[in-house]
From TrEMBL:
<dbReference type="InterPro" id="IPR004852">
    <property type="entry name" value="Di-haem_cyt_c_peroxidsae"/>
</dbReference>
<feature type="binding site" description="covalent">
    <location>
        <position position="214"/>
    </location>
    <ligand>
        <name>heme c 2</name>
    </ligand>
</feature>
<dbReference type="GO" id="GO:0004130">
    <property type="term" value="F:cytochrome-c peroxidase activity"/>
</dbReference>
<dbReference type="GO" id="GO:0042597">
    <property type="term" value="C:periplasmic space"/>
</dbReference>
<dbReference type="InterPro" id="IPR051395">
    <property type="entry name" value="Cytochrome_c_Peroxidase/MauG"/>
</dbReference>
<dbReference type="GO" id="GO:0009055">
    <property type="term" value="F:electron transfer activity"/>
</dbReference>
<dbReference type="Pfam" id="PF03150">
    <property type="entry name" value="CCP_MauG"/>
</dbReference>
<keyword id="KW-0574">Periplasm</keyword>
<keyword id="KW-0479">Metal-binding</keyword>
<protein>
    <submittedName>
        <fullName>Cytochrome C peroxidase</fullName>
    </submittedName>
</protein>
<feature type="binding site" description="covalent">
    <location>
        <position position="68"/>
    </location>
    <ligand>
        <name>heme c 1</name>
    </ligand>
</feature>
<keyword id="KW-0732">Signal</keyword>
<dbReference type="InterPro" id="IPR036909">
    <property type="entry name" value="Cyt_c-like_dom_sf"/>
</dbReference>
<feature type="binding site" description="axial binding residue">
    <location>
        <position position="215"/>
    </location>
    <ligand>
        <name>heme c 2</name>
    </ligand>
</feature>
<feature type="binding site" description="axial binding residue">
    <location>
        <position position="69"/>
    </location>
    <ligand>
        <name>heme c 1</name>
    </ligand>
</feature>
<feature type="binding site" description="axial binding residue">
    <location>
        <position position="298"/>
    </location>
    <ligand>
        <name>heme c 2</name>
    </ligand>
</feature>
<feature type="domain" description="Cytochrome c">
    <location>
        <begin position="43"/>
        <end position="152"/>
    </location>
</feature>
């Protein structure tokens, strides 16, 4: 079951957005939530980082999670759509991995209820990492003898290498990829000097225009929901504008491509808004190249409002204040590859 905000509900919420005001501004927590059956530990996160960077999880031995989610920068790959094995292009823009731990469902269409389930998807996607089935990826990891001690340190002395432990380790690492302490976070915690005058204007405009009806909460991805319950919105909601055709916003059916339900046509998980300065190009198809243009597109297609250049620039400046420091990343040393593994 998922939560869907219909346009009539959206209109009602917009009337409350300005009144909510600064009382609703929330700083990002310093630690990401983790499920009870997969608590984050240093040993698990280390193993997950190794797997995240390991190209041997792909059919060709050339593509890793990190290939499309570069944690040395924006957590994505800056392509409109990502390139997988054999140079194949995927159908959607790679979402950033930074702060994905604060989303209640994963992927643009919300088809994965957790980071654990999301971690398995790209491995067997034919245009991403290209393994015909997950069991083949598991067998390959088992053949790399150096991995088993890491799995046992992470999951216990009797642990084995299987699909779930691979996914749980990657998810644990991803829960360390969070970016609190942005200028906005410092402002929300009481440091009123943390934002510039333009950013403060943009913050007020963000609320007044109605952006907070969908982009609320500390991650600006909507209200807190139980894990596995997605927060979705129709995009575009209003189609009487030039952006819909210019950026081909109706070409992809969104969640309907997963559920097959007509009511899910062009329905999308509401994305977070942090670190946007690092994640251009924007939207599910990666066709909008600048942040001020993305602001104008959203105002027109979601709120039926036309912003001038100054308003868009102010809101973009506020969104830039959501950029937080990335936790330091070091390249992991991986176990050696058997000589007969990749032929």
């Amino acid at each position: 079951m998922h939560r869907l905000m219909r346009p009539v509900l959206l209109a009602a919420l917009l009337s409350l957005a300005s009144a909510a005001g600064a009382a609703e501004w929330q700083a990002l927590p310093m630690v990401a939530p983790a499920p009870a059956d997969n608590p984050t530990t240093p040993e698990k996160a280390l193993l997950g980082k190794m797997l995240f960077f390991d190209t041997r999880l792909s059919s060709t031995g050339t593509v890793a999670c990190a290939s499309c989610h570069n944690v040395m920068e924006g957590g994505d790959d800056h392509r409109p759509t990502s390139m997988g094995v054999h140079g194949q292009l995927g159908g959607r823009n790679a979402p950033t991995v930074w702060n994905a731990a604060f989303l209640s469902v994963q992927f643009w269409d919300g088809r994965a209820p957790s980071l654990e389930e999301q971690a398995k998807g790209p491995i067997v996607n034919p245009s991403e990492m290209g393994m015909p089935k997950m069991e083949l990826a598991v067998d390959r990891m088992r053949r790399i003898g150096g991995y088993l001690p890491y799995f046992r340190r992470a999951f216990g002395a009797s642990a084995t290498i299987d699909a779930d432990s691979i996914a749980r380790a990657i998810a644990a690492y991803e829960r360390t990829l969070i970016t609190p302490d942005s200028a906005y976070d410092r402002y929300a915690r009481g440091d009123k000097s943390a934002l510039s005058a333009q950013q403060r204007r943009g913050m007020q405009a963000f609320a007044d225009v109605g952006c907070t009806a969908c982009h609320s909460g500390p991650n600006f991805s909507g209200p807190a929901l139980p894990q596995g319950t997605g927060f979705f919105q129709k995009f575009p909601t209003y189609t009487n504008n030039p952006y819909v055709a210019r950026y081909r916003l109706l070409d992809d059916g969104g969640r309907a491509t997963v559920t097959g339900k007509p009511e899910d046509q062009n329905l999308w998980r509401v994305p977070g808004l942090r670190n946007l300065v690092y994640t251009a190009p924007y939207f599910h198809n990666g066709l909008v190249q600048t942040l001020p243009e993305a602001v104008k597109v959203m105002a027109s297609t979601q709120l039926d409002k036309q912003l001038d250049d100054a308003q868009a620039a102010d809101i973009a400046a506020f969104l830039e204040s959501l950029t937080g420091p990335f936790p330091a990343q070091s390249m992991p040393q991986l176990p050696p590859t058997p000589g007969d593994m990749l032929h």
